[in-house]
Structure formats: C-alpha cells, structure tokens
Amino acid sequence: MPKHGKKYLEAFAKVDQERFYTPEEAIKLLKETAFVKFDSTVEVHLRLGIDPRHADQNIRTTVALPHGTGKSVRVLVFAQGEAIQASLDAGADFAGSDDIIARIDKENFFDFDVAIATPDMMGKVGRIGRKLGPRGLMPNPKSGTIVPAEDLPRTIREVRGGRVEFRNDKTGILHIAIGKVSFTPEQIRENLTALMDAVKAARPAGAKGTYVRSVTLTSTMGPGVPVNASLAQGIVA
After folding, report:
1. Nearest 10 degrees: CA dihedral of 101, 107, 110, 115?
2. Going by DSSP bridges, is the β-strand pair 114-117/75-78 parallel, antiparallel, or unpaired?
3. Within 13 A of 80's CA, how many CA atoms are on the CB side?
4. Distance (Å, whole) CA 225 – CA 191
5. Could you give the 3-state DSSP secondary structure of residue 213?
6. Are 145 and 160 in contact (CB under 8 A)?
7. Domains and CATH numbers, the chain
8. CA 26 → CA 10, 44, 57, 130, distances in Å?
9. In angstroms, rounded to a whole number, what is the distance separating the alpha carbons of residues 73 and 68?
10. Which label site among 11, 39, 135, 179 has the fewest CB atoms less than 10 Å from its CB?
11. pLDDT in tens, the chain (237 residues)
12. DSSP 16-59
C-alpha cells in the first residue's frame, strides 16, 4: 500500500475490504471515513465489462442527478443572434460567437466547465477543437451539448441543475462525482440510483458477460468502500 497519513490509515481500518456493503451501509461508512476539513466530493468508480479497444463498446453519455453534484457549474454557449441573450437569460455564464472563439484561441480562456453549442456554430467551434478537445470541453451530440437554439434554455438549466457527462477511461472504468459528503444519505443514494440507471441504459450491445464488475464509493482522499454491485440499483451480472 502507498504511504498514507495517520488519518487515512484510521479511516481505512474501518473498511472491510473483503466485504461488499449494501449501498446504504456504504454511504454511512463513506460519511464516517471522510476526514478532510473541507466538504469532500463523493465519487463512484465503476469497473465495467467492456473492451475500450472497440469504439462501439465505449460509453459516453449523461445523467441528471436529482440533487446535483454540489459544485457550481460554469456554462459557456456558442451561439449567434438572439440565442446569445436567451442563453444568458437562462443562466449561461458566457455566450457569444466569434468573440468567444477568439478569446479561447488567442487568450487561452477556459474559465468554464461545460460548453454548449448550436449546430450552426460547429464549423467555427471546430477550429478550436485542438484546444477544447483535450480539456473535455468540445461540444458533442453524445453528451447532449450540441442542441438547437430553441433548446438552449432547457439544456443550460439541466447542466446547471445537475446533469453531468461521464465516459469510461482506457481501462473500462467510470469515475463520476455524485455529490458532497455534506449531502444527506438519502440525497447520495438517490444520486447513486440515477447514475446506476443511466449506466444500465448505456450498456453497449457488444458488451458480453458481467457488465458491472465492481462498484466503489469514495470521498476525496478517503478510502474506497466496496459496494455490492447487484444491490446498486438492481444491476445484476
């Protein structure tokens, strides 16, 4: 085991790594073992039975968390004409066309968490894809961030209200933040339920055998708590 501080080791000792906890037990233990002084993030790590080497088995989708993530989401919108003001009125932090694109390209402006675009803007946005892509900020239809102008207000509200994107890494694992330790157990459970429903719905047709191999709950800098995958919202091998 890597070297850890005294507080981590005390927290780790409370978790039986040979046991698979029910979601309710895991959430209770998660809150008990969170030892940092700030309001740490609750994360779910899912090891999936997919082969990331095959494009049709990679997962990239979104989930609307009923209670959000506890994090303020800064939204930027690429749009034209009246859609710019409509986006700002709906809660976007930034909205524009050539001006926003130039700012990103020339000033390396990245003070936002999610970028949304209308289809007619993608030709221009594509020119800064080399900067947006590596940061996970490139609008994409799979993540629901390329939408018609009339859908911008709804999309902005959803993103700010708790809609998050997730995708597997190169080893087939999902890492998703689903809240804060300060959330009630019920809020964490309901967010976990929504996530597991979304993961189940996103199962690739090419995935064979056990789909959800393992579920682990953890808090920032805290120990991982193994969860019974079959009980995590009814996903059974």
Report:
1. 0
2. parallel
3. 10
4. 17
5. strand
6. no
7. 6-69+163-227 (3.30.190.20), 75-161 (3.40.50.790)
8. 17, 11, 29, 40
9. 10
10. 135
11. 556 788 888 888 899 988 999 999 999 999 999 988 999 999 999 999 999 999 999 998 889 999 999 988 999 999 999 999 999 999 999 999 999 999 999 999 999 999 999 999 999 999 999 999 999 899 999 889 999 999 999 999 999 988 888 999 999 999 999 999 999 999 999 999 999 999 999 999 988 889 999 999 999 989 999 999 888 756 433
12. -TT--B-HHHHHHHHHHH--SSS-PEEEEEEEES--TTSGGG--
Tokens found for residue 209: 């055998």
Q: Which two tokens stand for residue 137?
A: 């900020």
In which element (H, E) is residue 76 found?
A: strand 75-78
